[in-house]
Amino acid sequence: MSNCTFALPPNLLPKAGSPDWMNKADNAWQLTAATLVGLQSVPGLIILYGGAVKKKWAVNSAFMALYAFACVLLCWVCWGYRLSFGDQLVPFWGKPNVALGQDFLLRQGFAGMFPNATMVFFQFVFAAITLILIAGAVLGRMNFYAWMLFVPLWLTFSYTFGAYSIWSPNGYLAKMGIMDYSGGYVIHLSSGVAGFTAAFWVGPRLTKDRERFPPNNILLMLAGAGLLWMGWTGFNGGDPYVVNVDASLAVLNTHVCAATSLLTWLVLDVTFFGKASVIGAVQGMITGLVCITPAAGLVQGWAAILMGIFSGSIPWFTMMVVHKKSELLQKVDDTMAVFHTHAVAGSLGGILTGLFAKPSLNGLFYTDSSKIIGLFYSFGEGKTHLGFRQMGVQLLGILFVIVLNVITTSLICLFVQLIVPLRMSNEDMEIGDEAAHGEEAYAIWGQGDKLENSRYGASVYNDIELATKA
């Protein structure tokens, strides 16, 4: 062969799209992790909700999730991301701005060795799943048009406050050293409290629906739950913003805690009710995933198992015992029990993080971890004052998220109610999907034809087709 070289044209040089500050492996993993989290919502929670509700609510429940995902994305790139992670406006909120321009998107993100475009997408899927989790509390009666207004308003005036305060480097709780590895506070505690508050204002389902609300397809619900579980690999594994040992630890701890929690919940169901409940097992899985989220890469494996035992038992106790004795909890109709599975489990995870976070692991995740230490380890290192301080910061974070979401969610619901009713009419709630959307999930009779005497016997698309043929 001849000894010659070939020069690529300047526009094809590899460096043109790979600046020196970018790590290709980190960028590839971050986009993969974001996609895994996105799959938790679309189709994960779509089919989990669609299978877990009564047949007449399957379409409406799934559609609420799909709409939220799309709406949040548009709002996120137009103003939400910069409110959450942009330049500081006040200690708990960023300056509003778009995240669409090439000059911004192709620059290095505020953390990690990848561009802002990757960070915007990664943070979007977290914001989207938060709204979809809130939807779980109001399934089976919320007016879809009210939901259409609620989503952008809550994202703007609640989620961005919590995200900036806890996750932005300039946020006041972040500067205090709060530990929320991947969203126990920002996502799960927020969605649990906001969902419970929204359920209070929307009001309960019809009495007969509330008394008997069997899943229309448990196998479909399990498929959604499986996507939720496996997608958590990206949920917690992507938050170090780098492909490192801490990301690997976070992934393993996540699945260990979830499995332990599921088994703990199952044992309690069998012991006290004599039945191994599939729905109960899913609840235990979710509480385990939620509980480990603020601690995923900050604790050792034995701590992950302990957290799984706590997350499989304490939310079980609040759901099965406390709920039945509390007038307030009985009054509020929380369809998917997001208060117990997300608010209680998220708070529990935040407290246990403050207890079990190991200093050497904190150093892998936080730029400045000199004052961040779990209370359990502070005794052995002679830093008990820092351990108690950390517990105080963790509790302050819980209080902040609760107050923020009770107030903002209430104000948003009251505002939306001035424009459209928050809940469907009793007549429409009797019918469900056909009344809300003119569609139904399953064709039971004939070849999918709807009953001619039904008030909602034909969808708008059928009307259009008939008019076209005429």
Characterise this structure.
The protein is mostly helical and 470 residues long. The chain has a single domain, classed as Ammonium transporter fold. The protein contains 20 helices and 2 strands. It has helices at 24-52, 58-85, 102-105, 116-135, 144-167, 172-176, 184-202, 207-211, 218-237, 245-273, 278-292, 301-325, 327-331, 338-356, 359-365, 375-378, 384-417, 426-431, 433-437, 460-469, and strands spanning 88-90, 93-94. It has a two-stranded antiparallel ribbon with strand order 1-2. β1 and β2 (93-94) form a beta hairpin. α4 runs parallel beside α7 (184-202) and α5 packs antiparallel against α17. 51% of the residues are buried.
Helix coverage percent of residues?
55-70%
Biggest β-sheet, characterized? 2 strands, antiparallel
CATH class: Mainly Alpha
Give me the CATH fold name.
Answer: Ammonium transporter fold
CATH architecture annotation: Orthogonal Bundle
Beta content: under 5%
Rounded Rg: 24 Å
The number of strands is 2
Category from helices, strands and their pairing: mainly alpha
GO molecular function, one term: ammonium channel activity
Membrane topology: Multi-pass membrane protein
Protein name: Ammonium transporter
Main location: membrane
